[in-house]
């Protein structure tokens, strides 16, 4: 599947600007981490996983990570892609535990990119370029800030990767900066 094909499929099931922007962000962050973690030869695949990870969320929120498996199979997509995208719903909506480093990264950064993005939008610059760990940590502790971003999932994701929470946040800020530089 090409990025163009993935974008067209995503647009079939997602119309909201927020969800589309989130997909682009997570796709870019996944590409960044593929390159950073020694999986550069799979960077395109990692980016597709990030782009399509919430394929079903807008139309089928009550079947999130389940409906997308059906949709992807109907479109003849690779089982590896289906498993990877669905694994980010582990312990929430599906029993597919993240095993590959890529799946663990997706699990860890999906919610975190939303929280970091919310912090960045509050800044005068509206950017991650001047965002620091301490600003994110301050908002992270405020549970009603970006309340839809599960701190439990973020922390579980950091543990899966063997990273501290601060390391995950810092690395994800850098990844989001790289994405922002490209747009």
Q: Indicate the low-confidence ranges by residue numbers.
A: none
Report the helical percentage. Answer: 55-70%
- Overall 3D shape: globular
What is the N-to-C order of secondary-structure elements (H for helix, E for strand)? Answer: HHHHHHHHH
CATH top level is Mainly Alpha
Report the portion of residues in β strands: under 5%
CATH topology term? Hypothetical protein af1432
Write down the overall mean pLDDT.
96
Number of domains: 1
Q: Give the CATH architecture.
A: Orthogonal Bundle
Kindly name the structural category. Answer: mainly alpha
Summarize the main sheet.
none
Task: Describe the fold and architecture.
The protein is mainly α and 183 residues long. The chain has one domain: Hypothetical protein af1432 (Orthogonal Bundle), CATH 1.10.3210. The protein is 64% helix and 0% strand. It contains nine helices and no strands. The chain is globular and about 45 Å long. The mean pLDDT is 96.
């Amino acid at each position: 599947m090409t990025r163009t094909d993935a974008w067209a499929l995503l647009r079939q099931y997602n119309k909201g600007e927020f969800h589309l922007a989130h997909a682009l962000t997570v796709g870019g962050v996944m590409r960044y981490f593929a390159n950073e973690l020694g999986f550069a030869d799979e960077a395109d695949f990692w980016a597709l996983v990030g782009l399509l990870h919430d394929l079903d969320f807008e139309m089928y929120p009550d079947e999130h990570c389940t409906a997308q498996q059906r949709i992807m199979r109907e479109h003849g997509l690779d089982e590896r892609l289906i498993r990877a995208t669905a694994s980010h719903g582990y312990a929430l909506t599906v029993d597919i535990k993240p095993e590959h480093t890529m799946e663990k990264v997706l699990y860890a950064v999906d919610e975190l990119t939303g929280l970091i993005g919310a912090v960045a939008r509050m800044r005068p610059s509206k950017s991650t370029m001047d965002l620091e760990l301490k600003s994110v940590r301050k908002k992270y502790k405020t549970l009603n800030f970006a309340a839809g971003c599960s701190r439990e999932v973020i922390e579980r994701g950091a543990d899966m990767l063997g990273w501290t929470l601060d390391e995950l946040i810092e690395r994800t800020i850098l990844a989001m900066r790289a994405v922002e530089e490209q747009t």
